[in-house]
User: Which sequence fits this backbone?
């Protein structure tokens, strides 16, 4: 991907200001940045950087929310376990988030999975006072509503499932499917054990976890809020990529309530609805299968 000369110069000046010394930009290369943003690795004389770029009208808000989420995670589990945001800005119509580059291992081992399980459990033990967050943020490019509520059932229905149902068009979610969700809402309190609000990564699939060259697990691309911790654990099972060592290590630090595996499909209705709204009707059969378990 070709970088414009004006954007190249803008990033060079920015890095020189950050480092307070002359910076020689050796290369800027396109890297995988997920489905939402363009992403680049900037190699310089003072170190390497990772920059996300987006022209979406809400991109600046998205990057501010991501930086805030990384900050919350850093306070909970330590600086080594999240990327370090450096600055957020706009250059030539493109919003960007600049971070330190993390050299990731390509094939995490079973031991690395164990470390990740302990890290997630440690995060979840940092309890809050209510479910939600003091500001809205994003999951992918979709706004994630976080109005604080004292009851998890109310929060999950009103701020997670209902918001995505409201966003879905009629050709995606028809009257029959909405009636199924209404029946689910009337019974959802039967299925979960109350727990204190835990800080959640919020979008924890295998692509949002990496291991650096020292073997340290690192959480990236969060959609942070305070919720029921089983939501994070459930999502690790949705798309695969986590081993039994991961779950065993989690249980050693912070055992889950009995029956948590039976509730995983319930919590995963939220990311499935998000994917439905982002990528279309191919996710509807999985949603309907999950609802059937609970109504």
Assistant:
């Amino acid at each position: 991907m070709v970088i414009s000369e004006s954007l190249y110069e803008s990033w060079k000046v920015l890095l020189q200001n950050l480092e307070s010394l002359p910076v020689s930009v050796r290369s800027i290369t396109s890297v995988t940045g997920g489905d939402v943003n363009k992403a680049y690795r900037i190699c310089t004389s003072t170190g390497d950087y990772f920059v996300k770029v987006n022209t979406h009208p809400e991109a600046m808000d998205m990057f501010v929310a991501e930086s805030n989420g990384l900050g919350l995670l850093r306070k909970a589990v330590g600086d080594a376990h999240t990327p370090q945001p450096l600055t957020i800005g706009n250059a030539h119509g493109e919003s960007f988030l600049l971070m330190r580059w993390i050299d990731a291992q390509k094939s995490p081992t079973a031991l690395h999975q164990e470390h990740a399980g302990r890290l997630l459990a440690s995060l979840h033990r940092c309890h809050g006072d209510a479910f939600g967050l003091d500001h809205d943020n994003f999951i992918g490019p979709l706004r994630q509503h976080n109005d604080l509520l004292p009851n998890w059932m109310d929060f999950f229905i009103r701020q997670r499932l209902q918001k995505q149902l409201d966003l879905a068009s009629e050709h995606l979610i028809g009257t029959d499917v909405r009636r199924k969700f209404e029946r689910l809402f009337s019974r959802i309190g039967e299925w979960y054990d109350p727990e204190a609000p835990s800080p959640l990564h919020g979008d924890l699939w295998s692509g949002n976890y990496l291991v650096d060259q020292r073997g340290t697990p690192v959480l990236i691309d969060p959609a942070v809020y305070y919720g029921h911790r089983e939501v994070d654990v459930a999502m690790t099972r949705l798309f695969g990529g986590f081993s039994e060592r991961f779950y065993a290590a989690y249980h050693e630090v912070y055992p889950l309530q009995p029956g948590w595996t039976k509730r995983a499909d319930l919590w995963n209705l939220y990311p499935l609805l998000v994917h439905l709204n982002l990528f279309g009707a191919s996710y509807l059969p999985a949603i309907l299968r999950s609802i059937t378990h609970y109504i």
